[in-house]
Design brief:
The chain is α/β, with parallel strands linked by helices. The chain contains 31 helices and 19 strands. The chain has an eight-stranded mixed beta sheet with strand order 12-11-10-13-14-15-16-17, with helices on both faces. The chain has a six-stranded mixed beta sheet with strand order 1-2-3-4-6-9, with helices on both faces. Helix 15 packs antiparallel against helix 16 (about 385-390), helix 23 (about 560-570) crosses helix 24 and helix 29 (about 690-700) crosses helix 30. It is globular and about 85 Å long.
Length: about 725
């Protein structure tokens, strides 16, 4: 099976075309590397070949590396996985270095053959690293194309020379956004940044012209030229010194030291900047191997790449249900959630009927899409024609009859069972018998809401996270009577709008909020115990959480917390135990401190809504000064296990049916320590036995909420792991 093909023309230009059979986008495999290496050797050895073009047979160039390549390197080495990985990565460096040097005399830098890369579209990861090794990069004028190195987003860093070449090409400071943030650019911005050389209508034709007219000087990369100096300076250059000091501070500030890839990348850059280029490649490979063997990176890759991709491709979709893609969706309620749902639906090309009680409210909901598109136009991410097309798909109206012909209804009205029941009855009387009815709710039981439906098997929950257009996760909730077609419909719709779905069974707070609420409550409880609020917040951030529990409560609003606390107490009765958390929550509520929306909560805010510091009244009211403060590790364990144990209980109770969804949902839904790979990956990382030991200690010191779940204790007793027990399919039997 040919992944790279080779052809020469009458003028002596060899064209190597990457076209992986059966795939919409190229990914690099072992066989692909071998074929590319052979073709480069052929071109360099053939005197009739004047130069080479490397391009793609698809509308994109490449999406990156097949991660199975790295796994095979590791596994084939047996008891020496580090050596296997290092040798394999160095072989990739050798191939790209062969392309880069192209037969040049090492002493004179002359006599090489020009090799150009012609990108028809997107080039990511190894795809862009391959392009970087060529002598000139031409890219099609395709605004949808993305150029860059996104590896850091899945727990890796560019390890096929991308790190070393970008730093030597742009300098450490200018290269930081592309390496440390995984920033992707369209072709025009990539050219302005120096990532590629030319943006043209026909990159293959332009590359061919260049190859036929290239001179020796055009082939020498700056770092191979005599007298090369790194842009911005090396670590011991006066200017470079400040750059690297600042970079170290920035990386630690953003990662809190818990992301191994970021630290390894910075080390590779710092050390590599002080040595010759080929030595720098070996340093890069060494640090890349250390990251690959780090459990954190393995967990991130599994959750944020493998598992996420599997869920987006329908891993949990009922297999025997035909395609359920949505053609016309009705959205009930044009508030913040309904407006966001309408926007993402229209962006996906779905016709939308947006309903509200007044035309003014419906129009306001539609204006959210207009404002969004205007911002896109201002950033040159959208066009006026695209805006017109998106708005043309949204019919904002008060007329329920407009819902006729919809194959999916998404109800996003006020969180009141009576209001939702009324809308369910009204709408089901209008829409067709095959229409699926979905309710967008974060807490209300789906099985109870379904009682208002005459077709309970077609009634399902879809929990969007706010803001809809920015949050990647959608939680699909099955009621007691929800059928497979409704599940398939919800999954196909979520995939249409380019979100990541998880499917859970109905229970109080479903999965995400079931874990988020204990996180917030534990932080608030500690405030009530007199623990310094800053200690609580920083302990969470040091774990890699985007925000601490107190800030999260401010963002979600304190009055909502009060409402949830009252409802939970009413439902659980004597089993309800919030400890001092309710005292803190209700005290803030009584003072009118409702969070960010009132510009006062756990934090103080200025007139613009910017946080200015923690509210001193918390310390005064709950005796922080008179309380012996705990070790930060104790605070971290409380915050971590408050969430993790709920995830395990959700699996035990059958709410969560797949631990892949548990991990992906935790990271995308509420930012659960991404470096850990999610709650189940984290438990596997520290070991079930250690987790039980910590839980038992927390239970003795802080109460029954930390009681070790029977499933976790059983896994510890049997020496198992969660992913080992639930296998590749991760199904909890």
């Amino acid at each position: 099976m040919s992944e790279f093909t080779y052809a020469t023309d009458a003028d002596g230009v060899a064209t190597i075309t990457w076209d992986l059979p059966g795939k919409s986008m190229n990914v690099m495999s072992f066989e692909g590397l071998r074929q590319l290496d052979d073709h480069i050797d052929t071109a360099l050895a053939d005197d009739a070949v004047k130069g080479v073009i490397i391009t793609s047979g698809k509308d994109s160039f490449a999406g990156g590396m097949d991660l199975n390549v790295l796994a095979k390197m590791r596994d084939d080495a047996g008891n020496e996985p580090a050596k296997g990985l290092f040798d394999g990565i160095m072989s990739m460096h050798a191939l790209l270095r062969k392309i880069e040097r192209a037969g040049m005399d090492p002493k004179t830098n002359k006599g090489g053959k020009p090799i150009a890369c012609a990108l028809p579209g997107t080039a990511l990861g190894i795809g862009y690293e391959l392009a970087l090794s060529c002598h000139r990069i031409f890219c099609a004028d395709n605004p949808k194309a993305k150029i860059g190195l996104p590896e850091i987003m899945v727990g890796l860093f560019p390890g096929a020379g991308g790190t070393t070449r970008i730093v030597r090409k742009l300098g450490a400071m200018a290269g930081a956004p592309y390496l440390l943030e995984g920033r992707l650019s369209d072709p025009a911005k990539a050219r302005m940044a120096g990532l590629i050389d030319e943006v043209v209508e026909n990159p293959v034709a332009a590359a061919r012209d260049w190859v036929l007219n290239a001179k020796d000087a055009d082939l020498v990369k700056p770092w191979d030229a005599k007298g090369y100096k790194m842009p911005g300076g090396t670590p011991y250059h006066p200017a470079g010194f400040m750059t690297f000091v600042g970079a170290a501070a920035m990386v630690h500030g953003k990662t809190q030291g818990v992301y191994p890839a970021a630290k390894a990348l910075l080390a590779a850059v710092y050390e590599g900047a002080q040595v010759p280029f080929d030595t720098a490649l070996r340093i890069e490979a060494r640090h890349f191997v250390s990251v690959l063997l780090n459990p954190s990176s393995g967990a991130m890759i599994r959750s944020l790449f493998i598992n996420k991709e599997a869920l987006e491709k329908g891993a949990v979709r009922p297999a025997d249900v035909p395609d359920q893609r949505v053609a016309r969706v009705g959205v009930l309620g044009a508030g913040m959630m309904g407006a966001g749902i309408s926007l993402v639906s229209a962006l996906a090309g779905i016709e939308v009927v947006l309903i509200d009680q007044s035309q003014e409210a419906a129009d306001k909901g539609k204006s959210y899409s207009a404002t969004y598109m205007d911002k896109g136009i201002a950033r040159k991410k959208a066009t006026a024609d695209k805006k017109e097309a998106v708005l043309g798909l949204i019919n904002a109206t008060t007329d329920l009859d407009a819902l006729k012909g919809c194959d999916l209804i998404v109800e996003a009205v006020f969180e009141d069972p009576k209001v939702k029941a009324e809308m369910t009855r009204k709408v089901e009387a209008i829409v067709g018998a095959d229409c699926i009815f979905a309710t967008n709710t974060s807490t209300l039981p789906i099985s109870e809401l379904a009682k208002a439906s005459v077709r309970a098997e077609q009634f399902i929950g879809i929990h969007f996270f706010s803001p809809v257009d920015k949050m990647h996760l959608v939680e699909i909730i099955k009621g007691d009577q929800t059928g497979d077609r409704a599940v398939a419909k919800a999954l196909d719709y979520v995939r249409q709008i380019r979100k990541t779905p998880i499917v859970v069974n109905d229970a109080r707070f479903f999965y995400a909020n079931r874990c988020i609420i204990p996180y917030i409550n534990e932080g608030v409880r500690m405030v009530g115990e007199g623990i310094e609020p800053a200690l609580i917040e920083h302990a969470a951030q040091m774990l890699g959480f985007p925000v601490g529990p107190l800030q999260l409560n401010d963002e979600t609003s304190i009055d909502l917390g009060v409402k949830i606390a009252k409802a939970t107490k009413a439902a659980l009765g004597d089993a309800y135990d919030a400890g001092p958390a309710d005292e803190v929550l209700f005290w803030l509520f009584d003072q009118g401190r409702l969070g960010r929306k009132s510009k006062s909560g756990y934090y103080d805010y200025d007139e613009a809504g910017k946080r200015t510091g923690i509210f001193q009244g918390l310390r005064d009211r709950f005796g922080t000064a008179n309380t012996k403060q705990p070790d930060v590790t104790e605070v971290q364990h409380r915050l971590m296990f408050a969430q993790v144990l709920e995830a395990v209980r959700a699996l035990e109770d059958g709410v969560l049916m797949d631990i892949r969804e548990g991990d992906v949902g935790a990271i995308l839904g509420w930012g659960f320590a991404p470096w850990s790979g999610g709650p189940f990956s984290w438990l596997d990382m520290i070991g079930a036995a250690r987790a039980v030991e910590l839980c038992d200690g927390l239970t003795l010191r802080h109460g029954a909420r930390f009681t070790t779940p029977a499933l976790l204790r059983e896994i510890a007793d049997k020496g198992q792991t969660f992913y080992g027990r639930f296998s590749d399919t991760a199904k909890a039997a």
